[in-house]
Amino acid sequence: MSTARIFAVGLVGTLFGFALSRIGFSDWGEVHRMFTFADLRLTLTFGGAVVLIALGLLALPSRRRRMTRRVLHRGVVPGAALFGAGWAITGACPSIALVQVGEGMLLGLLTLAGVIVGTALYRVVHRRFLRFDDGTCGDW
Amino acid sequence: MPLLTEPWPWWLGALALSLVSFCFLAVARAGLGVSGSFMRVLFFGDARRAEEAERAMPDDTAALEAALLAATLEEFGDLAATGDSAPGDPASAKSPGLRAPHRRAPVSAHFVFLGSMMLGGLIASLVAGSFELRWSLGVEFEAVFGDGLASYAALVVGGVFVGFGTAMAGGCTSGHGLTGCSRAQGGSLAATSVFFGVGVLVSLLLQVVAA
């Protein structure tokens, strides 16, 4: 990948972090209000994004859609449940931990540390014990 | 300018996230998925080896097809199913065809992506005037967890849940939520419903605990 393209990836990432921050996904209180239905703004933002992306994809030729197959394998439900719990506690998904640190909220570093440990731990656990087929041939 | 200081209305946020999704697709030639990026960056050795293997693969797919067909027949003999050839007749076996291999985004791109997200947060908060180095996630967090060691432990443990859970599920809010759901992928629809649902349950629980 050319340096120019990698720089472009950096630009997109900056835009992503910027948007997540401006929307309020990096605000623990806002995320909590989303989950307790006290405020629907974040939910609508998320749902709206999914719809817009789906519509946009219809305009693309099929080979450009990059249809990565995301199969409902044995790890999906328990993994998602664990993730949801962690998200409610920390107010962060992997993206947000990074944005929080960028905003100066240094506690995000603790969340980030946990995310790194958890990700690495899973790889070890999956290869040693939970050797189910997740449709990726181990290509993560 | 309120756009830089006030939280964005839902439609603007939706527009921005979808734009990011398409820009990522165009630039990285891959679907957006942050937990996947974390995994690739943490185990960059694996990713590097995969990239090297891809580079070594011939662009000429005919040679690759022939080699794969030969290996399949050698392994499975007359069990090899080859479409319109007579079953059990390897001599008439034909390959079903092969697309050109997909060139993955290199680890460096994923690393830059993660780092730049942090930069995006910095710029956004500077512009909004809310940037401040602080050991706090806000009053709502402290209402539930306080501001002592227990709150720090909660964040680390919660973070482990997030890291482990997203790796196990094969995606997070961007990977399953945005990329997968928009493509109506079964695994993503299931994952998103579950992580959102559990997020709701745990949050309601925390609300009770805070009271």
Largest interface: A-B, 110 and 120 residues
Strand content of chain A: under 5%
Spatial extent as radius of gyration of chain A: 17 Å
Mean pLDDT value of chain B: 88
Rg of Cα set of chain B: 24 Å
Structural class of chain B: mainly alpha
Element order of chain A: H for helix, E for strand: HHHHHH
The tally of beta strands of chain A, per DSSP, is: 0
The percentage of residues in β strands of chain B lies in under 5%
Assembly type: heterodimer
- Mean pLDDT of chain A, to the nearest integer, reads 93
Overall description:
The complex is a heterodimer of chains A (140) and B (211). By secondary structure, chain A is mainly alpha-helical. Helix content of chain A is 66%, strand content 0%. Chain A contains six helices and no strands. Chain A is globular, with a radius of gyration of 17 Å. Chain B has 211 residues and is mainly alpha-helical. Chain B has helices at residues 2-5, 10-28, 34-42, 44-56, 61-76, 107-128, 139-145, 149-169, 173-182, 186-210. In chain B, α3 packs across α6 (107-128) and α9 packs across α10 (186-210). The radius of gyration of chain B is 24 Å and the shape is elongated.
